[in-house]
Amino acid sequence: MFVTAYESPAAASPGLPERPGVRPATLALTAPHCSRCLLREWCLPAGTPSRVVGCMDKRLSSPRRIRAGESLYREGEPFHFLFEVRSGNLKSSLTPEKGQVRVSAFHMAGELMGLDGLADGRHASTATALEDTEVCAISYPLLAELAQGNALLQGALMQQLSREIVRELQLLVLLGSMTSGKRLAAFLLNLSQRLSARGYSPSEFRMRMSRADIGSYLGLTLETVSRTFSAFQKQGLLDVDQRHIRIVNLAGLASIGNARAPRASRATRATPVNA
């Protein structure tokens, strides 16, 4: 919910415990400033009092810069912060009882992470950067304190929680009642809609997640994902060049995924974006 704009060299984080086999996330050195953040519109609801924004400027923790492959937090670790993605992409994954890691979500700029720790004070998933990524953090106790006197912040937090619930329900529908083609079509349309909402092209983007990650998320094998991409290309729905995707027929893809094709935003950017 809260992001900050900054430019500075990365430094080792003094606040993160080292874990065997896992590179710790790094921190930027400059202080955060929500009041000057270019992504403020994604995080703070319109009309948030300046005194609240100023309080956040003073009390936010240092922004974190995470390299590709690093973890932002891991399953079972204590929950202290909520994180907003400033740039880059991450994935969340779970480890069921059988021990096979399962991708549970993908996250892009402007999205909130860490809500899985609200239930019992420990993170229920592991968040891993798919590329070099920047996030901003705010302590949850501070957020709760600020929200007590601000109905707008309370509403924004509840909206984020609701989105998490809806995403889980959508995943259950994908895994429970859709064929492989419908699953992949719905996944691509979801990416398209999220990018369009941020002013990017809804039809051309580069995916940062691997096909193995996509398969893990959709409950499909790597071979099935690759075969379905090829089938979509032969049907004239997509142009695929490794991870670069161009949706040629949005309406046709939407008819397969039982979804509405996203409309391009008026502020759609001409260049494709990393998804």
Would you mind describing this structure in some detail?
With 275 residues, the chain is α+β, with helices and mostly antiparallel strands. It has 2 domains: 16-172, Jelly Rolls (Sandwich), CATH 2.60.120.10; 177-254, Winged helix-like DNA-binding domain superfamily/Winged helix DNA-binding domain (Arc Repressor Mutant, subunit A), CATH 1.10.10.10. It is built from 8 helices and 14 strands. The strands form 3 sheets. A 6-stranded antiparallel β-sheet has the order 1-2-3-10-5-8. The two termini are 20 Å apart.
Distance between the termini: 20 Å
Record field, number of beta strands: 14
SS-based class: alpha+beta
The shape, in one word, is globular
Averaged pLDDT: 76
Rounded to the nearest angstrom, the radius of gyration is 19 Å
Helix content: 25-40%
Task: For the largest sheet, list the strands in their spatial order.
Answer: 1-2-3-10-5-8
Instruction: Tally the helices.
Output: 8
Order of helices and strands: EEHHEEEEEEEEHHHEHHEEHE
Identify the CATH homologous superfamily of the largest domain: Jelly Rolls
Reported for the largest beta sheet, the result is: 6 strands, antiparallel
CATH architecture of the largest domain: Sandwich
